[in-house]
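Before relying on records like the one below, remember that each one covers exactly one chain. Contacts with other chains, cofactors or solvent are not represented anywhere in the record.
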Amino acid sequence: MRVLGVDPGLTRCGLGVVDGSGGRRVRAVAVDVVRTPPDAPLPERLLAVGVEVERWIERHRPDVVAVERVFSQHNVRTVMGTAQVSGVVAMLAAKAGLAVAFHTPSEVKAAVTGEGRAGKEQVTAMVTRLLALEEAPRPADAADALALAICHCWRAPMLDRMAQAQARSAELARAHKARLAAAQRARLAAAGEAS
């Protein structure tokens, strides 16, 4: 499975591609950060990020795009920019026919470090180690993008099994309700014939 991880941001948007070959084995393919000037108009900044994400999708041909789920921050302006970039990325992935998976920062940190409250340095150190990189990806947005991709490689099989189990459970529940309804109709019909 090839995953494009995106750590959304207007000033710095981390992009990382990881190949997962089953189990815990992962390999880095590419990593970079898209930068936009804070004083540029918002539409131009979103366009710049979008053009680069689209280029990465075309170049690296991921199977899925993993994006950090926007969470509440104290700085509303920052969270708005992050949400807008996430929307652009999700739209471009859908345009390319790719699935999009959203992971919370704590899910990513827990997957990569074993601790949902790990700091950026700890995440960077573990990403460097897990991917056997010669040097740590910088800035932290680059490491976060790789961490998102790793997280998805490791969580996707479990999420797929859970979805299959939920679908099977719903199917069994429908079949059970149908049998109960048929039995109820048969009892009512039998009671009607007896009277």
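The chain has one domain: 2-162.
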